[in-house]
Design goal:
Chain A: This is FAD-dependent monooxygenase. The complex is a heterodimer of chains A (about 425) and B (about 280). Chain A has 16 helices and 17 strands. With about 425 residues, chain A is α/β, with parallel strands linked by helices. In chain A, a hairpin with a 2-residue loop joins strand 8 and strand 9. The longest helix of chain A has 21 residues. In chain B, strand 10 and strand 11 form a beta hairpin. By secondary structure, chain B is an alpha/beta fold. Classes of the chains: A alpha/beta (about 425), B alpha/beta (about 280).
Chain lengths: ~425, ~280
């Protein structure tokens, strides 16, 4: 007779591990199954770890977790071909513990995190693929793996199997993802000596910088590029919705080369040695793409539940928070001895009440609007660049005339009415 | 029947680099794995157990984190794992390693007899293939190297029949039991482990012995102190240059090879068996 657990968690990313950790801490019998050689071996993200939600799982984690740098500066670049308009917020208080956010390398961090769950009593199995949930009488009762004698049972199964959740699809919880619901991101880890990074980004050893690049970084398509600083490397990546890539006939590897060779980017990565090349899908469909979150004996967390805030590039924090909420639901279900759909429905309520539900609702129309209205990335960013450049080019024109000239850059090309309409539309979806 | 397999944790040399300046191995971030030859050895042990009954133990000398590698052996199907781990063992060459493992065997033999010892042909970090025969010599049992098949085990008659791979053919030999076999990868592929093994391995805690847990150990024979091997120089082997690809049909190719060989009479001057 195969063994039975209280909880089986499929996947060892931030959502799955948060859930496994919390359940194991509460004394539940937990089995976590990961398909990669080790947790983190198949996971990709830009690299910003949000302190708050991580701290909710493991207090004072920064004291022994493999974090890279504390982020003290967040820059945003609106790129044109040979110019850019930038904003930056820098605050050295963010370096004081507890820091605001950290950069991390997932291969290292996920291993560390999963090991914390193991220390808490969860069993971790790597290199094992879960093929499907075992369903009996309409209830998920376990999982079937690709190994011989591969069935294993549990009261509840948590699907933390990532963006393309095959298990949720097999249960009929969500359909095949549409190209406009996912972003395809490619990323390189570029090795550079510590002091070179410190000089180029104007930081000290433990301080980090994030740069988000808009506009020409994606050749005007909906998406972003990013540069994040690790201790002795940079994470440089770029992604757009899959639909934009298809429409613009862009190849991801060409796009990342384009970013690396951009005149505004090149000086930052000069001399760097490419150490890793990664690619991944990111769920960007937001609120409308969220699948059914619970069922009889099953819960969905993290990317599998499409919980990503594309506008603020937040995902790992939502993953951890959803994993934690799932664990709380399971612990309460265990006390009741009831894992029915009705009992587990409290998970959905908790998600919608949390910042996950609130934020995804707030931006529910943002991605769709920007996808359908390409002018924001394609037209306005170059216009802002032209306006700002002409305003600051000293050529004997009076400042008053310069102002007029700058404003005309927008109204002449688009017409006052269109500009006001676009501004209103942007405000509406972001408000 | 009690089968014991000797295993070692090694750096994954498929991705290891040699630092060109210092000529030492750059081990930064290189994962530690179960020596690939040893995984075939463990599998061979597990298959013997399935055929004849009994149990499989693995034994290793290594750092405390080698526990992970022992768990890998449990995934393959080993029943028990023993790790000898102590700073006294550090820096050992093959002589000192075989002495330490021999002492571990003595300790294991207090619990139950050992019928067959299996080792991988060699490790991928040292490539010497000396530790297995060294253990056999110390235990005074026959070492049989380059085994590619275990034909038969007769527990009653205390005999095994195995097939060896030689440079110029195969050899079938019979040996008394207990004996020590070092096996080639050809002996058997490593199966995809069943799920219950994976779960058992995730829970498994091997027995760890420090030097003082072993009996009558002569510490002078351990670790760096007990190692007469001197590493005179380390270098990355130069890349082979030249070479020629011979094309055409079978007849043309063999003609060309023969004529190329005839151009080099020095190849045929040395007596066979020199190297």
């Amino acid at each position: 007779m195969p063994e039975k657990f209280d909880v089986i968690v499929v996947g060892a990313g931030p959502s799955g591990t948060s859930c496994a950790y919390k359940c194991a801490k509460a004394g539940l019998k937990v089995l976590q199954i990961e398909r990669g050689e080790y947790p983190g071996s198949k996971n990709v993200m830009g690299g910003v770890l949000y302190r708050k939600q991580m701290e909710a799982v493991i207090p004072e984690f920064w004291k022994d977790a493999p974090v890279e740098r504390a982020i003290v500066e967040q820059r945003a670049w609106m790129l044109d071909k040979n110019s850019m308009v930038t904003t930056s917020v820098k605050n050295n208080d963010w370096e004081k513990e507890p820091c605001n956010n950290y950069t991390i390398l997932r291969a290292k961090f996920d291993q560390w995190f999963a090991n914390k769950a193991v220390e808490a009593g969860s069993l971790l199995i790597n290199e094992t693929v879960v093929l499907e949930c075992i369903v009996e009488d309409g209830k998920v009762v376990g999982v079937r793996t690709d190994r011989p004698d591969g069935d294993v049972y549990a009261d509840v199964v948590v699907l933390a199997d990532g963006v393309n959740s095959l298990l949720a699809k097999k249960l009929g919880y969500h359909n095949e993802l549409k190209p406009e619901e996912v972003a395809l991101t490619v990323m390189e880890v570029l090795n550079l000596p510590k002091n070179v990074i410190n000089d180029r980004f104007n930081v000290t050893d433990n301080q980090g910088v994030t740069i988000e690049l808009f506009g020409d970084a994606t050749k005007g398509n909906l998406g972003t590029a990013f540069i994040y600083t690790n201790k002795e490397s940079l994470n440089l990546g770029v992604g757009t919705t899959l639909s934009s890539m298809i429409k613009a006939k862009m190849k991801p590897y060409e796009l990342i080369e384009y970013v690396k060779n951009h005149p505004m980017v090149r000086p930052f990565i000069e001399g760097a040695e490419s150490a890793e090349y990664l690619a991944h899908l990111i769920p960007e469909g937001g609120f409308y793409s969220m699948p059914k979150l619970y069922g009889n004996g099953v819960l969905l967390v993290g990317d599998a539940a499409q919980m990503v805030n594309g506008i603020h590039r937040e995902g790992s924090n939502m993953a951890m928070a959803s994993g934690t909420l799932a664990a709380e639901t399971i612990i309460a279900a265990k006390e009741k001895g009831d894992y029915s759909e009705e009992t587990l429905s409290s998970y959905k309520t908790a998600i919608l009440d949390s910042f996950i539900g609130q934020d995804l609702k707030k931006y529910k129309d943002a991605n769709h609007t920007f996808e359908e209205q390409p002018q924001y990335f394609k037209d306005y960013i170059p216009m802002i660049n032209r306006a700002a450049s002409s305003f600051l080019t000293v050529d004997g024109t009076s400042k008053r005339d310069k102002q007029k000239e700058a404003i005309k850059t927008f109204t002449k090309e688009k017409g006052t009415f269109t500009v006001v309409k676009d501004l209103y539309r942007a405000w509406k979806v972001m408000k | 029947m009690h089968i014991v397999v000797c295993v070692k944790q090694v750096p994954d040399t498929r991705i290891i680099k040699v630092n060109p300046k210092t000529n030492t191995l750059d081990r930064r971030g290189i994962p530690a794995i179960l020596n690939p030859f040893d995984s075939h050895a463990v599998e061979a042990g597990v298959r013997l157990k399935e055929k004849y009954g009994g149990s499989v133990s693995v034994v290793s000398m290594g750092p405390p984190n080698a526990v992970k590698m022992i768990r890998k052996c449990v995934e393959i199907g080993a029943d028990e794992g023993y790790l000898i781990s102590d700073r006294f063992f550090a820096g050992a060459d093959t002589l000192a390693t075989s002495y330490a493992l021999y002492k571990a065997f003595e300790k294991m033999l207090e619990e139950k007899p050992v019928d067959i010892i299996i080792c991988g042909k060699q490790t991928i970090d040292g490539d010497t293939g000396q530790v297995g025969p060294g253990i056999a010599r110390r235990l005074d049992i026959p070492p049989i190297t380059n085994v590619i098949e275990i034909k038969e085990v007769d527990e009653k008659a205390r005999k095994v029949i195995v097939k060896r791979k030689l440079e110029d053919g195969y050899e079938m030999i019979e040996s008394s039991m207990p004996c020590l076999l070092t096996v080639e990868k050809d002996i058997n592929p490593v199966s995809y482990s069943p799920l219950p093994n994976m779960i058992r391995a995730a829970r498994y805690e091997p027995t760890i012995w420090k030097v003082d847990d072993l009996n009558d150990v002569d510490k002078k024979q351990l670790g760096l102190k007990g190692s007469p091997t001197i590493v005179a120089k380390m270098f990355a082997p130069p890349k082979l240059e030249g070479g020629k690809k011979i094309e055409g049909n079978a007849e043309q190719q063999s003609r060309e090879i023969v004529s190329l060989l005839l151009e080099k009479p020095e190849l045929f001057e040395k007596k066979r068996g020199g190297a």
